Amino acid sequence: METYVLLGADGRLSDEPAARDVTPELCRGLYRDMVLARRLDSEAYSLQRQGELGLWLQCLGQEAAQVGSIRAIRDDDPVFPSYRDHAAALCRGIGPEALLAQWRGVRQSGWDPAEHRFGVYTLVLAAQLLHAVGYAMGVQRDGTDEVVLAYFGDGSSSEGEANEAFNWAATVNAPVVFFCQNNQWAISTPTSRQFGAPLHRRAAGFGLATELVDGNDVLAVHAATRRAAETVRRGGGPALVEATTYRMAGHSTSDDPTRYRTEAELDHWRARDPIDRLRTLLDREGWADEAFHADLDAEADALGAETRRVCRAMPDPDPSTMFDHVLPGGSPVLAAQRDGYAAYLASFEDAS
Amino acid sequence: MTTTLSRALTTALHHALETDPKVLVMGQDVGGLGGVFRVTDGLQKDFGPDRVIDTPIAEAGIVGTAIGLAQRGYRPVCEIQFDGFVYPAFNQIVSQLAKMHARTGGAITLPVVIRIPVSGGIGAVEHHSESNEAYFAHTAGLRVVAAATPQDAHWLLRQAIESDDPVIFFEPKCRYWSKGEVADGPDLPMHAARTVRPGGDLTLLTWGSMVETCLAAAAAAEEEGHDLEVVDLRSLAPIDVEALVGAVGRTGRAVVVHEAPVTGGLGGEVAASLAERCFDRLEAPVRRVGGFDVPYPAARLESHYRPDLDRVLDAVDRTLAY
Ligand SMILES: Cc1ncc(C[n+]2csc(CCOP(=O)(O)OP(=O)(O)O)c2C)c(N)n1
Ligand SMILES: [Mg+2]
């Protein structure tokens, strides 16, 4: 299967039919989303280095895969993310406070999934793919036309649960789009040690409609995901989009990628940066003037400042909150533990 | 030799790979990266990718293929990257690995070791700080051990690899970087508890991440005139009940300390065994100090969740005052 490309690494549009649908507004919108996401990501990275976050997993380099795909579906289409999907989350109106809370260690998750139609991050790899299929089965039974989008990584595709999800979705014709950000690495493990056959071929074997797309080409990701989602929406059965991209940063702020990959490889991918690529098109076509870029710079600066401010302002939670929401029905045992611990803490106050 | 707990594990693995060609190390990122905690650092370089295997991300696969390799005569040492990621392998561990020997009337032995970095205290995100030993100790057919010092890390791991039993091997990740002596040989068999501090007034029974906490509590109690004994169980299945009964029979008072939630935790098993075996020697009920019955909380709350010196001393005071 050939990789679908609309905007080449040189920043030129191909003569694919979908290229005719590319408008200046679309490009400006996608460009803005990617620039803002990169700013948030780099601020969060710095905050981790300053000790304000316990950990951060960067989406650097994967902005096109995330922005292109989430902008291709409807705002009411539910999304089941993995854990590196900050650019997609930002597009769903999830702000820096919500995005950073989990990584600062003040909450287990950051936002209300129903409000944003965007699930909380799933750290146990591939589990969310089955949730997406089940949710899609509910959509079928409710007779509505949402398409469920589920993000996952190349490494996660090796989990049994991922393959159960693909098969299950195909057998029940679930309205779900599985979206793989194949960023070439799973911590230190390259895709050559995850896949015996390319993922898109495996997906076809399961009976999924497949797309293989240049994940650093936001326009191609957008067009391919839209195509997949609309087929799914019309009842055409589940689909899998494999987006070829690259994790430009370490796996996380705890990782040292120099132990397992080369500078030359990074250079190869630096030349394919998704934001630079779209910028080249905008500049060549004259689709974004100086005022646009000045406004966007100001907006990014404001987002950066807000990210720093809200992060530092997040207080440590009250200890009693760890007893909240364990069981929706509550439990007398837990209530006793909570009260006992509060009394225990109070005994120190009394003593001092 | 003085070394870190992490390094003591590395040298144990190195020794096993060197002396027994059937030993294999397998897990996610254990090769070039040396594992996320660097426990397997350098092993792939020395023994090659056929013996130190970077696996796909598939925990059921890691344990399931280890079972097959063991049937073929190999001795796999599996690494699960974090405690919270062992559950996809639960079927392979509980229904396959643990039961094969009994199911086949002893015809098949599965010398598989599963190393699991366990417990909290490192400020991690969810699923990276769980103390899930009770699930495995509850399963007949598994040996479960927890190493708290470099000496035990090294020798328990070597004993685990040499053993024909399947062994779940817990490594308290908050102790990976703590240093201690590793002697030239093991001073205890795998199943034995260790008295890490003698004392006459009360016995603290603990393991893994909490051994250090209990030693600190005992030191603090000494200043108040209380002489606490600390016993590290080391083996959580089977438990060295004789040693516990001996210790608590002498002191008459016991507090069990573990990081796992109290409900269904092994503290209950220990307390019940003591009640059955030395009820008439007990001067007070056996108390349990452990995690609360809540999911391991966000990092900024973990110091409230994990038993600390004060919570141990609180239970000690109540037990002494009973
Ligand atoms: C079930 C499970 N096993 C192991 C891990 C540890 N782990 C976290 S991220 C990761 C690599 C995932 O790679 P991939 O799916 O490609 O996503 P990426 O990080 O590249 O975005 C691993 C092994 C985990 N989180 N969950
Ligand atoms: Mg990946």
Walk me through the structure.
The complex is a heterodimer of chains A (352) and B (322). In chain A, 47% of the residues are buried. Chain A is globular. Chain A has 2 domains: 17-317, Thiamin diphosphate (ThDP)-binding fold, Pyr/PP domains (Rossmann fold); 319-352. Chain A has 352 residues and is α/β, with parallel strands linked by helices. Chain A has helices at 24-49, 63-70, 86-91, 96-104, 113-116, 127-142, 160-172, 199-206, 218-233, 263-270, 274-285, 290-313, 332-351; strands spanning 79-80, 148-153, 176-182, 185-186, 189-190, 209-214, 239-244. Chain A contains 13 helices and 7 strands. With 322 residues, chain B is an alpha/beta fold. Chain B has 2 domains: 2-181, Rossmann fold (3-Layer(aba) Sandwich); 194-321, Rossmann fold, CATH 3.40.50.920. Chain B is 37% helix and 20% strand. Chain B has 12 helices and 14 strands. In chain B, strand 10 (202-206), helix 8 and strand 11 (228-232) form a beta-alpha-beta unit. In chain B, helix 8 crosses helix 12 (309-321). Chain B starts with a strand and ends with a helix. Chains A and B meet through helix 4 and helix 13 of A and helix 3 and helix 12 of B. The complex binds thiamine diphosphate and magnesium ion. Thiamine diphosphate (TPP) sits between chains A (84, 123-125, 153-156, 183, 185-187, 247, 251) and B (28, 57, 59, 81, 85, 88). Magnesium ion binds next to strand 4 of chain A.
Layout of helices and strands:
The complex is a heterodimer of chains A (352) and B (322).
Chain A: H1 24-49, H2 63-70, E1 79-80, H3 86-91, H4 96-104, H5 113-116, H6 127-142, E2 148-153, H7 160-172, E3 176-182, E4 185-186, E5 189-190, H8 199-206, E6 209-214, H9 218-233, E7 239-244, H10 263-270, H11 274-285, H12 290-313, H13 332-351
Parallel strand pairs in A: 1-2, 2-3, 3-7, 6-7
Antiparallel strand pairs in A: 4-5
Helix pairs in contact in A: 1-2, 1-11, 1-12, 2-9, 4-12, 6-7
Chain B: E1 2-4, H1 5-19, E2 23-27, H2 43-47, E3 52-54, H3 59-71, E4 75-79, H4 90-97, H5 100-103, E5 113-118, H6 133-137, E6 143-146, H7 150-162, E7 167-172, E8 179-181, E9 194-197, E10 202-206, H8 210-223, E11 228-232, E12 235-237, H9 241-251, E13 254-261, H10 266-278, E14 287-291, H11 302-305, H12 309-321
Parallel strand pairs in B: 2-3, 2-4, 4-5, 5-7, 6-7, 10-11, 10-13, 13-14
Antiparallel strand pairs in B: 1-8, 6-12, 9-11
Helix pairs in contact in B: 1-7, 3-4, 8-12, 9-10
The complex binds thiamine diphosphate and magnesium ion (MG).
Thiamine diphosphate sits between chains A (84, 123-125, 153-156, 183, 185-187, 247, 251) and B (28, 57, 59, 81, 85, 88).
